Amino acid sequence: VQLQASGGGLVQPGGSLRLSCAASGNIFSTFSSFGVDWYRQAPGKQRELVAGLTSGGFATYADSVKGRFTISRDRAKNTVSLQMNSLKPEDTAVYYCYSRADYWGQGTLVTVSS
């Protein structure tokens, strides 16, 4: 199983980005039967959980992103997305998707700067 994250880039404060995570391989065991999370790691900081989505569709968010980020899943495309709005400089980090079947995607860099 491989997870491919994409969608990162440079955005101004207040802007939006949409990250996607696509699974290949034994895809049934990745997003359909297991929950999925987005983590991020800023320079010099520990990796932190940003948002999570259970297999049943229940979403949770870190307080720092609540109301600004939305995690969603497209079962038909076997992808998971993270819509990020009202971005702040402190959202700058490498973002990782994680399947609770214990698969990590490679990171995608998000830089929020004017």
Written description of the protein model:
- This protein is an all-beta fold.
- Helix content is 0%, strand content 50%.
- It contains no helices and 11 strands.
- Strands 2, 4, 5, 6, 9, 10 and 11 form a 7-stranded mixed sheet that branches. Strands 1-3-8-7 form a 4-stranded antiparallel sheet, with no helix packed on it.
- A hairpin with a 4-residue loop joins strand 7 and strand 8.
- It is globular and about 40 Å long.
- The model has no long low-confidence stretch (mean pLDDT 92).
| Structure class | mainly beta
Discrete helix count: 0
Low-confidence stretches: none
Report the radius of gyration as a whole number of Å. Answer: 13 Å
Distance between the termini: 37 Å
Extended strand count: 11
Mean pLDDT: 92
Tell me about the biggest sheet? 7 strands, mixed
Percent helix: under 10%
Strand content: over 45%
Q: Topology as H/E string? A: EEEEEEEEEEE
General form? globular
What order do the helices and strands come in, and which of them pair?
Layout (H helix, E strand, L loop, with lengths): L1 E5 L2 E3 L5 E8 L11 E6 L6 E6 L5 E3 L7 E6 L4 E6 L8 E7 L3 E2 L3 E5 L2
Parallel strand pairs: 2-11
Antiparallel strand pairs: 1-3, 3-8, 4-5, 4-9, 5-6, 7-8, 9-10, 9-11
Provide key terms for this protein.
about 110 residues, mainly beta, four-stranded antiparallel β-sheet, about 0% helix, globular
